[in-house]
Design goal:
The complex is a heterodimer of chains A (212) and B (222). Helix content of chain A is 16%, strand content 27%. Chain A is α/β, with parallel strands linked by helices. Chain A has a single domain, classed as Glutaconate Coenzyme A-transferase (3-Layer(aba) Sandwich). Chain A is globular, with a radius of gyration of 17 Å. Chain B has a domain of 152 residues: Glutaconate Coenzyme A-transferase (3-Layer(aba) Sandwich). Helices cover 21% and strands 27% of the residues of chain B. The two termini of chain B are 25 Å apart. Classes of the chains: A alpha/beta (212), B alpha/beta (222). At the A-B interface, helix 2 and helix 3 of A face helix 4, helix 5 and helix 6 of B.
Chain lengths: 212, 222
């Protein structure tokens, strides 16, 4: 069986070391937070200026919605003991300076060499918006991508070369998909695990040379 | 440093053609009262530097809708409620300079810190670095980025004292402290102005040297 979004998120969460400082990108990667063990001491960073971000605010008496406390997706969130706040320049210095251990991002495409495309479809009428994607892509010590392996039209998203505009060059370390987990190494694309598909079937559906 | 009685008094004198740095990440830290006062004040042909390009029909979006903005420098204009910007952009009535968020913050930090330019790894090899000078340093490609300096900064903070020292609240801090260093005239809206000495000197985020005008709008909780 291929993995559901929640199962993909659990697979990513399993590979995040205890005590790591982690940024979870907007969209699917935020699901990873639900699968981290509270006693693992993972500290979540949000690029709008907070460390040790808590879960989403529900608006109940325990966690009221506060317009001054949001995540990078502008959704209301909560504080945890040990949270800290800082300005945007410090937040991105933290990222660019290599102080974050892991960031988890979504993607349109990833190339075999680890190039990432996740900010712009390149369509002429699309309004471009980049946010912190380019800073995140090149900043964290490890960059994990979480995505379905094939687009809705069936096209593979792990490709020899990205055709969408790039977010970062050679920056992705691992790709977590519904059908397989890949490690991008100097020696090539290594398949770590498959889900509901054999290695040979996988190799047949991708144009990227794979290794076991 | 001047404590102003009204937001209108605080934004007086902003000239046509100014570059205006506007704080906030979405609505958190957005100096809405100052933007409304700027709409009222009438300055036009503005360049706005802000993380986003307006939400809904109020604040920055309202300034844009009145045709008073020539150019927006931001990281993330496209949002579910950015229809005002989207319409202007699609019809070619506004110029956009798209800047990765960390480069946006650092370019203003550089302006405030007297740095002539800097090499950033962010954006290297992407369309946003096209035409920019690059350099390989220790085996990595960096892109030359220039400072962004404002004529005016409009900042939303939590409390000010009468000297202009500022503290912020939670993630509403975001671009405020860096914008406060990067503009010739820094105008701040706060929820409360307290007496000098009432803010803990250890906890002040923006020291008074950066702040020119403060107005209390008395709305924020906490």
């Amino acid at each position: 069986m291929s993995l559901s979004k929640q199962e993909m998120a659990a697979t990513v969460a399993r590979d995040i070391p205890p005590g790591a400082f982690v940024n979870l990108g907007i969209g699917q990667p935020t699901l990873v937070a639900d699968h981290l063990f509270p006693d693992a001491g993972v500290v979540l960073h949000t690029e709008n200026g907070m460390l040790n971000m808590g879960r989403a605010a529900t608006g109940g008496p325990e966690d009221p919605v506060d317009g001054d406390l949001t995540n990078a997706g502008k959704q209301p969130v909560t504080e945890l003991p040990g949270s800290s706040y800082f300005d945007s320049a410090a937040s991105f210095a933290m990222m660019r300076g290599g102080h974050l251990d892991v960031c988890v991002l979504g993607a349109f495409q990833v190339s075999a060499a680890g190039d990432l495309a996740n900010w712009h479809t390149g369509e002429p009428d699309a309004i471009p918006a980049v946010g912190g994607a380019m800073d995140l892509a090149i900043g964290a010590k490890s960059v994990f991508v979480m995505m379905t392996l094939f687009a809705r039209d069936g096209a593979p998203k792990l490709v020899p070369h990205c055709t969408y505009p790039l977010t970062g060059v050679g920056c992705v370390d691992r790709i977590y998909t519904d059908l397989a987990t890949f490690e991008l190494t100097a020696a090539g694309v290594v398949v770590r695990e498959t889900f509901g598909i054999t290695y040979d079937e996988l190799a047949g559906r991708l144009e990227v040379p794979l290794r076991r | 440093m001047k404590v102003c009685a009204t937001a209108g008094e605080a934004v007086a004198g902003i000239a046509d053609g100014s570059t205006v740095l506007v704080g906030g990440f979405g609505m958190a830290g957005m100096p809405v009262h100052l933007i409304d006062a700027l709409i009222e004040q009438g300055a036009a042909d503005l360049t706005i530097v802000s993380n986003n390009a307006g939400n809904g029909d109020t604040g920055l979006a309202a300034l844009l809708a009145r045709g008073r903005v020539r150019k927006v420098i931001c990281s993330f204009p496209r949002q579910h409620d950015s229809w005002v910007f989207d319409g202007l952009y699609r019809s070619g009535r506004i110029e956009l300079e798209l800047v990765p968020q960390g480069n946006l913050a650092e370019r203003m930090r550089a302006a405030g810190a007297g740095i002539g330019a800097f090499f950033s790894p962010t954006g290297a090899g992407t369309p946003l670095a096209e035409g920019k000078e690059t350099r390989e340093i220790d085996g990595r490609i960096y892109v030359l980025e220039y400072p962004i300096k404002g004529d005016v900064a409009l900042v939303g903070a939590h409390r000010a004292d009468r000297m202009g020292n500022l503290v912020y609240r939670k993630t509403a801090r975001n671009f405020g402290p860096v914008m406060a260093t990067a503009a010739a005239t820094v105008i701040v809206q706060v929820s409360e102005v307290v007496e000098t000495g009432d803010l803990d000197p250890e906890a002040i985020v923006t020291p008074s040297i950066y702040v020119d005008r403060v107005v209390s709008v008395g709305t924020v909780a906490g």
